Structures are given as structure tokens and as C-alpha cells.
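Let us practice reading a record.
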Amino acid sequence: MQRRLWRDGNDEQQTIEGNLASYRTGIPLRRIATPAQIANSVLFLLSEQASHITMENLVVDGGATLGAK
């Protein structure tokens, strides 16, 4: 999703670093998620291991939103 917003080669690093002047915190894990990482989160929620989880939001953003809702 982020990649569609990027215009040049510096945009990925700027997304990761953030910009406090524009209230963008960046990504604390210092990397963009891969499609496989997102898919693994979905697979976990679909698995028996998550069978007792209800009414929760799973945020898979490397800490970019810092848990903000």
C-alpha cells in the first residue's frame, strides 16, 4: 500500500524514518512489511491457534501507528 504513494527512491526511507513536523512517526521496526508477513498474520487468525480470540484488532504495521486507534 505504501509503495503506491512513493514517487522516488527516497520515499521508502522517508516512510520508515517519519517526519515529526508533519506528525508522521515512521516505522519503529525500521522496515516495510512484506506481503508474506501480512499473509502470515491473516493465516494465524484463521488457524486453530487463534480459535479463542474474539473482538480484537490485529495491527500489522511495524509499530507505525503505535497502537493508536
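A brief commentary: The longest helix spans residues 35-46.
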